[in-house]
Amino acid sequence: MQIHLKTLGCRLNEAELETWAQAFQAQGHSITQKISMAQLVVINSCAVTQDAARKSRQLIRRIHRENPQAKLVVSGCYATLNQQEAQALLGVDLVVSNKDKAQLVDRALQELTFDSMPEMATEPSEIALFTRGRQRAFVKVQDGCRYRCTFCIVTVARGEEVSRALEEIITEINTLHAQGINEAILTGVHLGGYGSDNGENIVSLIRAILDQTQIARLRLGSLEPWELTDDFFDLFNNPRLMPHLHLPLQSGSDSVLRRMARRCKTEEYALIVARLRAQIPHFNITTDIIVGFPDETQEEWQASMAFIEACTFGHIHIFTYSPREGTKAATLPNPVPHDIKKQRSEELHTLAKIMKQDFYTQNLNEQFEVLWEGQREIIDENHVRVFGYTPNYLRVACDIPSTQLIENMITPYEMKQVDTDYALGEIFLN
Q1: How many distinct structural domains can be found in the chain?
Q2: Residue 283 three-state SS
């Protein structure tokens, strides 16, 4: 049977898709990138914002229109928080909540009726990751979150914290590396909470991966800044741990942070930023910012913008606040008017673009080890432009002969010129 997998949202959703893909393949089915070829479509939905929930509904409807004969399974946060609504959408055959995700593959194969029989089981080296054209692997290490930030619906949708066994994670990364993967990215709803239920912690996990695997590059997903202990910083002395962290700030105003129930003050956040950049030159720190949180005054907004600018982020994910039923923030008074939220969002987007360009500029004429991905753009009949990422997560490109193949290779590279969304430079091959 041909199966198409689709996701919206976070890296955790990506990691879960990889797990399902390998499980389907282990039972003799194959993964297809073409919706029209699939007998089964699995959607991992998102509901972090109202807009994300809307896009999840649109995706479900679109996929059913494109392939009405395929069985359709929907999981993820939208399906969990709006189970009856998701089940009622035209074409949906099965809804699997987040708490039952581990059984999704078995439930889909057991509860749905298919006309086709499984193909011969794939070879162990024939993994879904490469079927989907990826050179990096997202590895889910935990689920759930014990914190209750007032704006967050994901903690409601994902439930309590559950960590995977350390040995299981090590085995997965070693398997991925044996299959040719050069970079593993650790993901979780609350990545820094890894081990809260099994006696481990995020530091012991990273140390074990660095000690017990040979994966060339290890990258971390989003981490809450208040959970970075002194021994965590020491981990970056190992060059296999990539010098990039996504540290959600959410606001640069301490009074707004208190209303959000965030556990880190701006002063503490600034010290973390300074420490990382002092330790490793060109350390890339990216973040999330919520614009227009309830009762956000102009003074708070100005303070937030000033702090954000002082931090000089490499990239900012910007979210315009929207109330989510079931969160404390949805009950707060004095919502910010739509036109003001729009104006502030535009201001922040402008600043974020400037900071991103500045960070690229700071890295010009520096040499990096770049992992090259599969995307190729034709320059002329003899040359193509290839793309990859530096250790500090800058997207870069290089023009090479069209006959040259460097996909999934790690090579020395020097940045020479900043383009709109990436940098151009030169590659060095032995």
Answers
A1: 4
A2: coil
